[in-house]
Amino acid sequence: MAEPVRVRCPACPREHTYVPAALPCACGAPVAPPLVRGAAAEEVSDHTWDDDWVTLRCPVCGRRDRWPRPELGCDCGALLRLPVQDDQAPPPQHIPLPRTVTPPRPAFRPVAIRTARDAVTAVALYLRWLGYPDVRRADQRPPSGIGLAARGLVAQLEPSVRPATVRDVECLWLQSMTESAACVYFSLAGYADEARTRADELLVPLFVLDLTGEPQPVNSPADEMIAGSA
Q1: What tens digit of pLDDT does each residue of 90-106 get?
Q2: CATH: 3.40.50, 3.40.1350, 1.10.405, 3.10.590. Which one for 116-229?
């Protein structure tokens, strides 16, 4: 468990005790952002994709991934961003030993969903767990929801209480065809019956997110996506 730090709100005199949350690496080890002790917290007025993430190295396997930057809400209403030691240096050279047996993939560790940003974090972590480490915001904004992308993959998240529609599924599929990439859809409120039928026809994997942040496959292409990444 990471050590607690004292955080003073720049908008009011309040002080807080903050413990960085540890999130699971693809190898299963917990990774907590190393906070810069003594550095002042920054009040957040606007969110951008690059500012919301920080590059960290797993202390167990050495893997470098992007993780949600730690934030803290003050009682005065200010949202505080905590300075983190961002690891941008390339990992040391490593020559892996030959393996005769592929180790089993660790279980996915979800992140609870309270906001749309939490849902984006949960999907990004799940895609990394599936084998797509370079998850980022998609360059092309979808007609609805939030677009994500990785090498060889486009993904869409519908974080609202509106079930995904046939048009949502078809637009994602057309984008994947244009970019010659695989695609996957995540929804908090599920899918209309017509959307599920069309997704089966187009072989689009569909997942439903519950509030624990655990994506659940809802069609055969989603089951096959999980099995193919194991």
Answers
A1: 445 444 545 545 556 78
A2: 3.40.1350
